[in-house]
């Protein structure tokens, strides 16, 4: 795929996040890795239903430098840190999706109860990175650490990050994480 095609894919993914109910308006972001140094990411503060491919931003994930005048997502650093930590990953989705955010608000790790979910999420426990202010070095480093051995991590009091070998798999991780978190919440209610 060339850069233009990747920009189109990221743009469509942004709209799809909205459609699938994984984000509200602009509260989430998605990126695809282009090569060993660059990624394409959704822009900062634009409503997803109005996105166009030429608003997607090409960023060097080692230097954070970006092409053009459009600012990349404010949660850019999180994506950069994840690509540096997990070199085989091709796509990153960050959302504030509902059930995962409820668990993230409790600052708890998620026990993945369903075996099928464990396979897709790549772990039996999805870790919650300790709370830190958005866009700080601390939150990016802590989140990258929490996702070292799974395909998803929670960010306490904030949201989630999901990763995959391609965009499709990353969407599947995000959806599965919602189911896993809903089950986890149910199981806690029953044991309470
Ligand atoms: Zn966020």
What does this structure look like?
With 192 residues, the protein is of the alpha+beta class. The protein has a single domain (3-191), classed as L-fuculose-1-phosphate Aldolase (3-Layer(aba) Sandwich). The protein has 6 helices and 9 strands, in the order αβββαβαβαββαββα. The strands form 2 sheets. The protein has a 7-stranded mixed β-sheet, with helices on both faces. A hairpin with a 3-residue loop joins strand 8 and strand 9. The chain is globular and about 55 Å long. The structure holds zinc ion.
Task: List descriptors.
192 residues; alpha+beta; L-fuculose-1-phosphate Aldolase; seven-stranded mixed β-sheet; two-stranded antiparallel sheet; 6 helices; 18% strand; binds zinc ion
CATH topology: L-fuculose-1-phosphate Aldolase
Q: Note the overall shape.
A: globular
Tell me the CATH superfamily. Answer: Class II aldolase/adducin N-terminal domain
- CATH class category name: Alpha Beta
* Secondary-structure element pattern, one letter each: HEEEHEHEHEEHEEH
What's the alpha carbon Rg, rounded to whole Å? 16 Å
Spatial strand arrangement across the major sheet: 3-2-1-4-9-8-7
Secondary structure topology:
Layout: H1 3-19, E1 28-33, E2 38-41, E3 57-60, H2 76-85, E4 91-95, H3 98-105, E5 110-111, H4 115-121, E6 125-126, E7 128-129, H5 137-146, E8 152-155, E9 159-164, H6 167-191
Parallel strand pairs: 7-8
Antiparallel strand pairs: 1-2, 1-4, 2-3, 4-9, 5-6, 8-9
Helix pairs in contact: 2-5, 3-6
Zinc ion binds next to loops.
């Amino acid at each position: 795929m060339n850069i233009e095609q990747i920009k189109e894919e990221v743009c469509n993914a942004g709209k799809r996040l909205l459609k699938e109910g994984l984000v509200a308006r602009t509260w989430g972001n998605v990126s695809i890795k282009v090569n060993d140094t660059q990624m394409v990411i959704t822009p900062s503060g634009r409503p997803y239903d109005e996105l166009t491919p030429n608003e997607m931003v090409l960023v060097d994930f080692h230097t954070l430098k970006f092409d053009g005048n459009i600012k990349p997502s404010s949660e850019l650093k999180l994506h950069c840190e994840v690509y540096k930590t997990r070199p085989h990953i091709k796509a990153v989705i960050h959302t504030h999706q509902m059930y995962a955010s409820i668990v993230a608000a409790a600052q708890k790790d998620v026990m993945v109860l369903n075996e099928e979910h464990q396979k897709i999420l790549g772990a039996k426990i999805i870790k919650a990175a300790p709370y830190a202010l958005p866009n700080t070095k601390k939150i990016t480093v802590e989140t990258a650490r929490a996702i070292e051995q799974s395909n998803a991590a929670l960010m306490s009091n904030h949201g989630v990050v999901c990763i995959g070998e391609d965009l499709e798999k990353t969407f599947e991780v995000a959806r599965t994480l919602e189911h896993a978190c809903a089950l986890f919440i149910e199981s806690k209610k029953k044991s309470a």
